[in-house]
């Protein structure tokens, strides 16, 4: 069975999700509304710098280049670092740029696959993502066994998550762990990063 993981967003969270999904043998497809990786680091004002110290914003398997000596790198250096990560680990072929997800629906019974994360599993249903390919101006539906939402705080990018919203917030329905980058909800506990 082809274990497909749809990942929405190619900021730092989406890049990490893509890398580790691929490493575990899943088939990731990253949908990115814009035409580049790096998310918010493409849109910061010029004076922006990393607010936390560089060692606390470092991939465990991809150190900052030695040319970056400042403890608080500039926005350009951060963006360059994220782009280099994507190139280094060969993530670009997985990313569909100019591809904005406009809805996500789950078709099938409740998800049981989470219990089997990382193992061979059978799915009760599929996620259906409707995507607008903005450059070529057409809409297409994609299916996946898993969806990882990595849209940062720009939740307004999603006009409608259809059933996903009620499942995330309706924990009586959706009891498994939900990672919504920035916000993690698991059963009764909920906390923000
Ligand atoms: C000005 C500023 C300064 C910051 N400084 C720091 C800092 O110093 N240290 C720190 O740790 N964090 C900082 N942050 C937080 C920042 O959000 C994180 O560093 C990190 O970029 C978040 O990555 P992300 O992948 O979760 O989200 P993002 O970087 O926001 O990426 C989300 C991606 O999802 C895409 N997307 C959204 N909706 C859709 C859709 N419907 N379909 C397809 N694609 C979609 C977007 O185009 C974007 O590329 C800062 C944020 C801002 C705005």
From TrEMBL:
Q: What is its EC number?
A: 1.-.-.-
Protein's UniProt keywords contain Flavoprotein: yes
Q: What class of enzyme is it?
A: oxidoreductase
Alphabetic keyword roster: FAD, Flavoprotein, Monooxygenase, Oxidoreductase
| Superkingdom of origin organism | Eukaryota
Listed GO MF terms: flavin adenine dinucleotide binding; N,N-dimethylaniline monooxygenase activity; NADP binding
What family does the Swiss-Prot or TrEMBL record give for this protein? Belongs to the FMO family.
Question: What is this protein's name?
Answer: Flavin-containing monooxygenase
């Amino acid at each position: 069975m082809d274990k497909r993981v749809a990942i929405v967003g190619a900021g730092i969270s989406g890049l990490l999700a893509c890398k580790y999904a691929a490493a575990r043998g899943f088939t990731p497809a990253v949908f990115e509304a814009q035409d580049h990786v790096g998310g918010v680091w493409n849109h910061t004002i010029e004076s922006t710098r990393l607010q936390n110290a560089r060692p606390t914003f470092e991939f465990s398997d991809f150190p900052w280049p030695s040319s970056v000596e400042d403890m608080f790198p500039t926005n350009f250096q951060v963006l360059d670092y994220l782009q280099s990560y994507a190139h280094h680990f060969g993530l670009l072929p997985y990313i569909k740029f100019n591809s904005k997800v406009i809805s996500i629906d789950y078709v099938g019974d409740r998800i049981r696959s989470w219990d089997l994360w990382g193992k061979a599993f059978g799915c009760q249903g599929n996620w259906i993502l409707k995507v607008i390919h903005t450059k070529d101006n057409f809409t297409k539906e994609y299916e996946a066994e898993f969806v990882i939402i990595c849209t940062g705080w720009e939740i307004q990018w999603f006009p409608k998550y259809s059933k996903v919203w009620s499942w995330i917030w309706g924990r009586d329905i959706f009891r498994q762990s939900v990672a919504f980058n920035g916000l993690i909800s698991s059963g009764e506990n909920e906390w923000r990063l």
